[in-house]
């Protein structure tokens, strides 16, 4: 090593390697990997080395993807910069120009927007139909249909998808299936085990779990996931090592958080289902033997003043997302489903008084009291 200051400043902190093993996985915060010589470099292309350039692969990103794949009992996984990026990559691994997708109408607004606005640019046709009755799915299938797309628990009205029926329809018509499992998480349900080809997560939500990460994970059949991985790399939709590392940290407590989330949600739903200020409550029944999810959606359009309700919340924050440790509320009409045509929102039941509650990890008495006092103040 040169003794010149400028050279030392650039090189000194790159050389250290330590013998002691760290307890936790180090963060490979590097955009690229280095090689001893040209043969070593060729080793990557011969498949002897896993990493070349972080956009194409990184140990932390791989950790997150493979961990979620294992929890879903799927053979392969890939992580992406966001849930949306993972959804796009998954779809593009199955459908291309001239192909057609049948998707459920009552999905996350961002996915709806991706399907109707972006996929057209790729020459992919979409039919959005009500999946409440699967005869609609069968009727929507065309000669060029490649994929059936839905969510295991839909956002925001929490309809539980009949996965077995979708898989059956797909088999009969030689189609692939893709399910967004964000609300359920692999703790509550693993759609791949029931025959779904690709399972996607907005890891931004429960997987990372602390509202400080944006990430997506796609798991499923090896060939499809690898194909999606190529799309992520080509599109530059890769996840950063630090966000992946945070995602892995979150994943370690997924089961513990979900247990409490689900328990609190169940108790809150029980109290609110009899509340005088609520027109309608949405909460899945018998979703899985570990619980029914941690989101409770209420419709207070007729009985409350919605602005007063939001203003009356004292410590629960208005947050256009979900799944953090803190209980939060979101307003689908104003945020997640804002881009949907009003007529579709009305059809689906996404009303002016719909509130999606992401039930957190606090003491359940405090959560119940907070909603009760806000509803009492908002009551017309
Ligand atoms: C069910 C569902 N899928 C996908 C997404 C998109 O995820 P991301 O924001 O990580 O891109 C969201 C975001 O809210 C969601 O709720």
TrEMBL record:
GO CC term, one of those recorded: cytoplasm
Any single biological process term in GO: transsulfuration
Top EC class of this enzyme: lyase
The keyword Mitochondrion appears for this protein: no
Residue numbers of N6-(pyridoxal phosphate)lysine PTMs: 205
Assigned keywords, A-Z: Pyridoxal phosphate
TM ranges: none
Domain of life: Bacteria
GO MF annotations, alphabetized: homocysteine desulfhydrase activity; methionine gamma-lyase activity; pyridoxal phosphate binding
Obligatory cofactor(s): pyridoxal 5'-phosphate
Enzyme Commission (EC) number: 4.4.1.2
Entry annotated with the keyword DNA-binding: no
UniProt catalytic activity: L-homocysteine + H2O = 2-oxobutanoate + hydrogen sulfide + NH4(+) + H(+); L-methionine + H2O = methanethiol + 2-oxobutanoate + NH4(+)
Descriptive protein name: homocysteine desulfhydrase
